[in-house]
Amino acid sequence: MGVTFTKHFSQLFAKKNIRILMVGLDAAGKTTILYKLRLGEIVSTIPTIGFNVENVEYKSISFTVWDVGGQDKIRPLWKYYYQNTQGLIFVVDSSDRERIVEARDELHKLMNEDELRNAVLLIFANKQDLPNAMSAAEITDKLGLHSVRKRRWYIQSTCATSGEGLYEGLEWLSSNAANVA
């Protein structure tokens, strides 16, 4: 009886671990987002060749966030990071109108991957502070998200350098990815 009580009691206060894969086109701001969440500050970044992985604590959840490089030559390697992913963060540079179709195509490839079928999808519409940035509503249209029916998704306007919108996105992830087996 005491062991059972202790086990259940500790589960109430134990941090839940959630595996997150963060991808998007190169220069979207993935690494800046990761380290703003992890350290609370801006770090100077270079294009990610390979990956960065960090634990981000939020409320009672420990997110293990895998930030994988987005250059076109690296994207075929994304599949090696799919296993056990509960949440997918797709980062879009809201000011990059020239590559929004490319971003849409990459996102839809991800959503068609069998290993990611149960992962919830959070889109960070990043760089909202830049002139001519597309709104979250415009990005929703251009990414074709209204046609997504078999997946929970959410789009959040963000500015990685100020941190604006990042914790709202984590709040959504904590409520939705926690239910993914």
UniProtKB/TrEMBL annotation:
Entries under InterPro entries matching the protein: Arf1-5-like, P-loop_NTPase, Small_GTP-bd, Small_GTPase_ARF, Small_GTPase_ARF/SAR
Function, in words: GTP-binding protein involved in protein trafficking; modulates vesicle budding and uncoating within the Golgi apparatus.
Record-linked SMART domains: ARF (SM00177), SAR (SM00178)
Cell compartment(s), UniProt: Golgi apparatus
Gene Ontology molecular functions: GTP binding; GTPase activity; metal ion binding; phospholipase activator activity
Highest taxon of the lineage: Eukaryota
Name of the protein in question: ADP-ribosylation factor
Family per record: Belongs to the small GTPase superfamily. Arf family.
GO aspect biological process, one term: protein transport
GO CC, alphabetical: Golgi apparatus
